[in-house]
């Protein structure tokens, strides 16, 4: 049995009760934290809280060499854990398909996603979000501006009146000069807002910082204004609103302090 467990958004306690029970009952526990990570807890805290040994796999250890995970799951109960919801990444879908092809039973225990949390915290309705995009560090795409693909995604959503989630780049194990096992870097919302204000337009945006933590931050303003503020520890993301329903406009004003002239009030 191979059980995919979403750990939620923040720390060792963010997992669902069902996920916690499956995690603690597993014979072996694998985890990856390159697609996202729990910023409120490290691997040691996760392992100690649940009384398990956690075997962390690098990207290559999941994508190119999944055999240790699959072999263990063929012989016993294995938990494969990630931050957020475990099936957001196509890498994990591929791993599940490989297991099914070998006759290994699989199941999925979901966790809260950053996108669902962003909808809940901002008051923007989940069904009115379009395609999400990721804003990379400039050095990661070989330029010094916003990739055209990011702008195209935002513009396409806005043409349909839809909101856009902009995930912000995480670099673990690689930096500006190439592979670096000690490198951890998180794009912050102020940096992202500055890039978009310059490379796109100075429009209304919403910062969501530390969703799932005891002290989430939600702030709405023009990108240029957000670029001049600090939002504390990661993880951060941006939401670029599309057309606003009057309840959504009220929510951005009430929950995120959006200026009245930006939400039509």
From TrEMBL:
Annotated Pfam families: TP_methylase (PF00590)
Catalytic activity: 2-[(3S)-amino-3-carboxypropyl]-L-histidyl-[translation elongation factor 2] + 3 S-adenosyl-L-methionine = diphthine-[translation elongation factor 2] + 3 S-adenosyl-L-homocysteine + 3 H(+)
Entry binding sites for S-adenosyl-L-methionine: 9, 85, 88, 113-114, 168, 211, 236
Biological process, per Gene Ontology: methylation; protein histidyl modification to diphthamide
EC numbers on record: 2.1.1.98
Keyword annotations from UniProtKB, A to Z: Methyltransferase, S-adenosyl-L-methionine, Transferase
Gene3D superfamilies named in the record: Cobalt-precorrin-4 Transmethylase, Domain 1, Methyltransferase, Cobalt-precorrin-4 Transmethylase, Domain 2
Pathway(s) where this gene product acts: Protein modification; peptidyl-diphthamide biosynthesis
All residue ranges annotated as the Tetrapyrrole methylase domain in the record: 1-226
GO molecular function: diphthine synthase activity
Family per record: Belongs to the diphthine synthase family.
UniProt subunit comment: Homodimer.
Function recorded in the entry: S-adenosyl-L-methionine-dependent methyltransferase that catalyzes the trimethylation of the amino group of the modified target histidine residue in translation elongation factor 2 (EF-2), to form an intermediate called diphthine. The three successive methylation reactions represent the second step of diphthamide biosynthesis.
PANTHER family per UniProt: DIPHTHINE METHYL ESTER SYNTHASE (PTHR10882:SF0), DIPHTHINE SYNTHASE (PTHR10882)
Protein name from the UniProt record: Diphthine synthase
Species name: Halorubrum yunnanense
